[in-house]
């Protein structure tokens, strides 16, 4: 398994979770989620410990779930509170409960060791709380591909010219150098395309009459959250890189949730500094994003299918792969750290290194 377990993953938007039982899967773990009477979302292992029927096949009774097979009932902490036909409950008759956090209309679930659930690690942006920015929850892209392929595609500006030539890119950027920074916790790839025609997206939403300077900044936060900061500004304004807010600027945010080794859900949304409160603009942007992300989906699913077939030669890596290469190494290191135990420095070791 290549999943990082000690991490927060997005289960969906807050608006999608209500009183009903909501079944989903994250990193191979089946979960059932519901809102209790106080409005808090509970997440439990979706498997009764008796005959293993998913609890999502049962029903809500107050703030508990009753198994649909023999009626064993569990509270929001996963504790069995009733076994029909007997007064006692076996000590092991419980299911795992998972930590949940809601922020900015996003539902996060901690999939690792409960005692390591640090809420300060949940992804955030200052613009979420800035009235000058409009937040819009988008959709969910279901991709039959390994999540590593999906995530590394989101730190790869070079593919935009070829995969999205009419929506997010054009031929003007094909040979523009990509800068990569891997020195910090966030892997960043970026480039500016100066004095070129606006791409289709900004032709529609920017109202530009002439050439523009446009940018793409791809930030990848481990294990699998990506922020694409892109925008455009009139070339005549000669905008410095640190003053991008002067232009039409958008953050496309991708919360990449691994479901299994062969299936990933990309929960995507955007923030923008233009057309605040304009629902029609949100719907138009959604339509264009859907078109662009469908192009990614086609590519990624084809790559995943090809990876599963026997290979006669090793895949090659080229200059534009620096960001993805570093990303994969960091994921390997995190997985290795979770699956091994460091006993510390040896006491009276038999083998002594000199």
UniProtKB/TrEMBL annotation:
Alphabetical list of CDD domains matching this protein: RHO_alpha_C_DMO-like
UniProtKB keywords: 2Fe-2S, Iron, Iron-sulfur, Metal-binding, Monooxygenase, Oxidoreductase
Enzyme Commission identifier(s): 1.14.14.-
InterPro entries: Cholesterol_7-desaturase (IPR050584), Rieske_2Fe-2S (IPR017941), Rieske_2Fe-2S_sf (IPR036922), VanA_C_cat (IPR044043)
Matches recorded under Gene3D superfamilies: Naphthalene 1,2-dioxygenase Alpha Subunit, Chain A, domain 1, Rieske [2Fe-2S] iron-sulphur domain
Molecular function GO labels: 2 iron, 2 sulfur cluster binding; metal ion binding; monooxygenase activity
Residue ranges of domain Rieske in the record: 8-109
Pfam families: Rieske, VanA_C
PANTHER family linked to this entry: 3-KETOSTEROID-9-ALPHA-MONOOXYGENASE, OXYGENASE COMPONENT (PTHR21266:SF60), IRON-SULFUR DOMAIN CONTAINING PROTEIN (PTHR21266)
Protein name per Swiss-Prot or TrEMBL: Toluene-4-sulfonate monooxygenase system iron-sulfur subunit TsaM1
């Amino acid at each position: 398994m290549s999943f990082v377990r000690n991490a927060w993953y997005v289960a969906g938007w807050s608006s999608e979770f209500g009183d009903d039982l909501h079944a989903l899967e994250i990193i191979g773990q089946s979960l059932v989620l519901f809102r209790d009477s106080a409005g808090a979302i509970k997440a439990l292992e979706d498997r009764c410990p008796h005959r293993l029927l998913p609890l999502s096949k049962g029903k809500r009774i107050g703030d508990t779930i009753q198994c649909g097979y023999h009626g064993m009932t569990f509270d929001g902490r996963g504790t069995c509170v009733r076994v029909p036909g007997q007064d006692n409950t076996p000590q092991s008759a419980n299911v795992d409960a998972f930590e949940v956090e809601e922020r900015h209309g996003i539902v996060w679930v901690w999939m690792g060791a409960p005692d390591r659930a640090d809420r300060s690690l949940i992804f955030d942006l200052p613009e979420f709380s800035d009235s000058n920015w409009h937040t819009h929850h988008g959709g969910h892209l279901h991709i039959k591909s390994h999540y590593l392929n999906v995530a590394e595609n989101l730190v790869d500006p070079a593919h935009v010219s070829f995969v999205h030539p009419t929506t997010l890119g054009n031929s003007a950027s094909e040979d523009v150098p990509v800068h990569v920074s891997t020195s910090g916790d966030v892997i960043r790839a970026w480039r500016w395309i100066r004095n070129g025609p606006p791409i289709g997206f900004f032709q529609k939403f920017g109202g530009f009459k002439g050439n523009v300077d446009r940018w793409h900044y791809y930030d990848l936060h481990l294990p699998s959250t990506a922020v694409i900061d892109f925008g455009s500004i009139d070339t005549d304004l000669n905008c410095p890189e640190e003053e991008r807010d002067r232009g039409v600027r958008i953050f496309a945010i991708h919360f990449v949730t691994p479901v299994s080794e062969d299936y990933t859900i990309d929960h995507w949304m955007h923030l923008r500094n233009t057309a605040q409160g304009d629902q029609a603009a949100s719907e138009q942007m959604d339509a264009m994003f859907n078109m662009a992300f469908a192009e990614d989906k086609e590519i990624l699913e084809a790559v995943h299918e090809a990876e599963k077939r026997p290979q006669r030669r090793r895949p090659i890596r080229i200059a534009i792969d620096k960001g993805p290469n570093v990303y994969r190494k960091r994921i390997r290191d995190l997985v290795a750290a979770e699956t091994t135990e460091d006993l510390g420095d040896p006491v009276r070791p038999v083998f002594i290194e000199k």
